[in-house]
Amino acid sequence: MPRWVLPFLVHLAASSAVLMLAVAWVTPKNPRNTLGRAAVVSLLLSAALTLTLARFAWFLLFPLLLYALVWVVVVTIAYRVTVPRAILLALALSFLAWIVTLVLGIPA
After folding, report:
1. What is the domain partition of the chain in residue ranges?
2. Tell me: the pLDDT tens digits for 12-24?
3. For helices 83-104 and 61-79, what crossing angle results, to 10°?
4. Cα–Cα nearest to 90, from 12, 39, 18, 28
5. Which of 36, 34, 38, 56 has the alpha carbon at shortest distance from 93?
6. Cα separation of 32 and 47, whole Å?
């Protein structure tokens, strides 16, 4: 097994768990809030972060706006929430990811 697989799976599990917590916080009892869906959404958003160049060209405005649009569309479709709820979900996700990074020391 390659050396990068275990860290990748740990990061995916942490990202999925934090996403599930954020969705449960913003939209309680959302039937679409499952670990599998959170893992797929985390993978899609990670790919979108790389493909839109927002990870590498973060100082440019267009890649960040494109990634934000992709993020809102993916979350809105995946969890069937409105755009204001998706933005609130982004804020909750940022806060929870910060807490996880602070407590566990791994970026979520």
Report:
1. 5-104
2. 898 999 999 999 9
3. 100
4. 18
5. 38
6. 21
